[in-house]
Amino acid sequence: MIELVYYTRKNCQLCDDGREQIKLALSELRYNKVKLTSFDIDENDQLQEEYMVRVPVLKHEGEVVQEGLIDFVQVYDYLKEYLGKR
Predict the structure, then answer these.
(1) How far apart, in whole angstroms, are the C-alpha atoms of residue 51 and residue 81?
(2) Which tens digits make up the pLDDT trace of 48-69?
(3) How confident is the model at residue 68, as a pLDDT?
(4) What is the DSSP string of 2-26?
(5) Run of H or E including 46
(6) Distance between CA 75 and CA 82 in Å, rounded?
(7) Measuring CA to CA, how many Å separate 80 from each of 42, 43, 73?
(8) Cα angle vertex 12, ends 42, 27, to 5°?
């Protein structure tokens, strides 16, 4: 099981677009054992302070996979490499 964490905020087009890119990458990999947990940074002062100008941010095992502009290729390549190492 891959657990991804996605930091977003409401009314954020980049966040919405990024979520679609993540779903596309997962679909292309044909890997369905993924838990994608989203956090709205505006609901937590600490998250807001850390991620205010960085959202959207996709993390895996505490490591930033990508931030700002989430794109299919970066997410796909990261996950493919990770799955290949297992």
Answers:
(1) 26
(2) 999 999 999 999 999 999 999 9
(3) 95
(4) EEEEEEE-TT-HHHHHHHHHHHHHH
(5) helix 45-51
(6) 11
(7) 31, 32, 10
(8) 110
